[in-house]
Amino acid sequence: MILLYASTFTKALGRLTSAEQKQVKITAFDLAQDEAGNGLQLHRVDKSPGFWTARVSQDLRLVLHKDGAHTLLAYVDHHDAAYRWAERRKLVPHERTGAMQLVQIVERTEEHLVYTESVGAVAPQPAATHRPFATLSDDALLNVGVPRDWLEAVRNADEASVDGLFDLLPDEAAEALLDVATGGRIEDHVAATAVAGADPFAHPDAQRRFRAVAGIEELKAALDAPFAQWAVFLHPAQRAPVTRDWQGPARVSGSAGTGKTIVALHRAVRLAGTEGARVLLTTFSKPLATALADKAMLMTEAVPERRDRLTVRALDQAAYDLYAAAFGQPSLATASQVRAAIEAAMKDGRGAGHDAAFLLEEWDEVIDAWGIADAQSYAAVPRLGRKTRLGPKQRESAWEVFAYVRERLGERGLTTWADVYARLGERVAAGKDIRFTHVVVDEAQDLSVAQARFLAAVGRAGGPDALFFTGDLGQRIFRLPFSWAKLGIDVRGRATVLKVCYRTSHQIRQTADRLLGREITDQDGVTETRTGTVSVFDGLEPVLALVDDTVAECDAVAAWLRAALAEGFAPDELAVLVRGQGQLGRGRAAAKAAGADLRVLTMHDAKGLEFRGVAVMALDEDVLPDADRLAGVGDIADLEAVQDTERHLLYVAATRARDRLMLAGVAPGSEFLDDLK
Ligand SMILES: Nc1ncnc2c1ncn2[C@@H]1O[C@H](COP(=O)(O)OP(=O)(O)OP(=O)(O)O)[C@@H](O)[C@H]1O
Q1: Which keywords fit this entry according to its UniProt record (predicted)?
Q2: Residue from 11, 175, 229, 262 whose mutation best tests the ligand 1 pocket (most atoms within 8 A of CB)
Q3: What is the pLDDT of residues 561-577, one digit of tens each?
Q4: Is the ipTM reported for this complex over the cut 0.95?
Q5: pLDDT, tens digit, for every residue of 282-321?
Q6: Which of 422, 420, 438 is nearest to 430 (CA)?
Q7: Which of 414, 430, 446 is the last residue of a domain?
Q8: Pairing relationship of beta strands 527-529 and 519-521 according to DSSP bridges
């Protein structure tokens, strides 16, 4: 007998009080030890073959499905609700895809009633005539996993009933139809077809809702984290890159909220399952690494040996530790020390024909990144990613400045981050142990050249699956683009894109997507496309408020926040985001006027976070793009790339919102808002 549990069960469990949850778990554990259920009070659900209820307490019932070979924990609720749920369900493999589905029985005479019930109070709508799926054939619908019983209801669905319909269909069918309803093609969602004799629970689409457990320990671990759906039920497109034996560096991308971080976590935990593996799961900032570490702890609770093989740290921190162990603690030069040295050299008459901003970028992206130590090396280096060409004379004059900077830093015993990564890279290339057999990098779009070179060395020294990246080119907010392939990280042919957005409502994601192109191609020709992305839930349209002055803006944002609070949003579920430190005051004033203690953050600091409601404010013409940043661009040819990072910042900020989004500023507002109007 195989014991399984369904995502409907863990979701239902999450809705109960913690005392009730405890009782349910005891019943579930009893069941795991006594699968025949002899010691439990089981009752057959008359109208639904295979369904039983197990008594948890006087009031609570656990719904099971038993077919001899399998026992499935399907649902849990109070007595009447549990029976009602079971009476309306059947468990059957889909006739075309073969994936096991928990299908809701269609009540033909009451189709509208069924839909509206599931989404709560939906007022009767005036007759809507548009039926978005009316012309889809049986074949087209069956191919994406729509159960046969639902074909007619799907084709009959109109604008008023369509949202409720999505809640009632199996996820794979709902996602395909959501895409169609928003202009996508149903052919892009054809599910894997049934293989004769295959286990219907093993189908990739079944694995996103059913999970087999090997024993009581595994069940305990799973039920102790009932809210963490992502820890168990991966989408097939998420599971595939996690489980595959990649024959080279691989990269997973996708719009904000498609679960890239979740994929990185699962991949790291999976790699840590191999004896002898030492896995580094990393990202670019400490707060993000801390959040990753918390999730990794949750996932490895029941597998302590994996936890021991997994290190979660920000990349700079990990590099610092490795460097300190190999060479002693580095004394790192700050950006302002480098800038001061460049300015001092220029004051001395070096670097004629260049300006300081240009030389600082040249230092960061070429001299320091590539560890250039003398004029000959500089004359020969390809200057990857730099757009303005430099002739031999110009390089000679620039080198006068860089030689001076190197000397000054050397005198003070200072190292740069690029030096740290370069020396570690050399150590790895020389076959010295760097502690890690695998590196999994989240938010990889913001890697620096020096970091990427170091990782390339790790990739060369390790096995074919040593490097795994997740990221979104549309969220590159710190770095200018450069070629990974030229540095030795070639993901071509091993790049996949996730298309199901779990975080943001359909309306918020669509609005945010308008800020970016449908496709972004990196320097190596790898294209990431946003078309076909669907969100798993609907919400309100984002609010855009362009007002006359900052006082009116404060009032508008405060009113919006108050309305959300009045509707039951907790203060920690809301955030106010602004472009930079200079606008934090405006954000705080709005939060204060709303009378709530809310997080007020810069857009950079909000990376990787999520909130139920987000107000992005101070979106003024001279704030975004940041006028100072644009004025400080040293190489005018980089202007567009810098402008892109500013646009990405607004995308990042807007996609932190799950349910509600407000965008506010003083008229005429940021030029980027024009794309949203
Ligand atoms: N398979 C899943 N089932 C349920 N929830 C999921 C699943 N995958 C991801 N999520 C949830 O979706 C949200 C977004 O996931 P995640 O942070 O991994 O996305 P992301 O692509 O890394 O986003 P960003 O690009 O904004 O950093 C999280 O709340 C996560 O728990």
Answers
A1: ATP-binding, Exonuclease, Helicase, Hydrolase, Isomerase, Nuclease, Nucleotide-binding
A2: 262
A3: 999 999 999 999 999 99
A4: yes
A5: 999 999 999 999 999 988 887 889 999 999 999 999 999 9
A6: 422
A7: 414
A8: antiparallel
